[in-house]
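Lab notebook, bench 4. The sequencing result for the construct came back, and we need a structural model before the next group meeting so we can plan mutations. Quick request posted to the team channel:

Model the 3D structure of this chain.
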Amino acid sequence: MVHNITLQEGCFVDLSAHLSMSYSPRAIGWVKRALDPSAPAAPCVPRAPAF
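Done. Here's the predicted structure in token form:
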């Protein structure tokens, strides 16, 4: 099953783009949660896009 997630959904201060998504705490949290449903929720922290 596929579940598309927008990082800014529920966390408007996370402006991670494709380059910075690989080290975004929110993206990492979502991956951990997908692999282990008992993992903690993805944190909402301010992130700027990488250029």
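The longest helix spans residues 25-35.
Will bring this to the meeting.
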